[in-house]
User: Which sequence fits this backbone?
């Protein structure tokens, strides 16, 4: 809900027309939830303008030697 | 990896040009992973043709009375 509030706050500024949510790994589900909750409950005129998925390389965790690949998502949301 | 294999198998049939991955809730991350792994490691000419997000209503779990809203994703993948 703090992400939803951040989006509402950003859009309440009159010069903000579009924001992009970015997430990777397990947070991808959270990003989709945030976009859906914002759009269905709060800012009903908001449109999802773009969705892109990709892969990012993360440095190895402590004690590991290989870097890991994680999926990413970018969700653009636009005021009419 | 079993989902990746299912996609490769589907596309190996010559009359399949497009498949759609559908997932909801925590499985959204898995769907993005599956799309990215298939595209980056196995079928490199595959294109993501569409991505849509939405909300679905799920019946209440045992012992609960309210239905829950879950986020959904649909990822379309296309052969050239």
Assistant:
């Amino acid at each position: 809900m703090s992400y939803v509030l951040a989006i509402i706050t950003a859009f309440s500024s009159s010069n903000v027309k579009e924001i992009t949510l970015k997430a990777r790994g397990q947070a991808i589900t959270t990003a989709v939830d945030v976009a859906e909750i914002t759009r269905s409950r709060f800012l009903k005129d908001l449109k999802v303008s773009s969705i892109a998925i990709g892969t990012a390389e993360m440095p190895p965790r402590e004690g590991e030697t290989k870097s890991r690949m994680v999926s990413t998502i970018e969700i653009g949301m636009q005021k009419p």
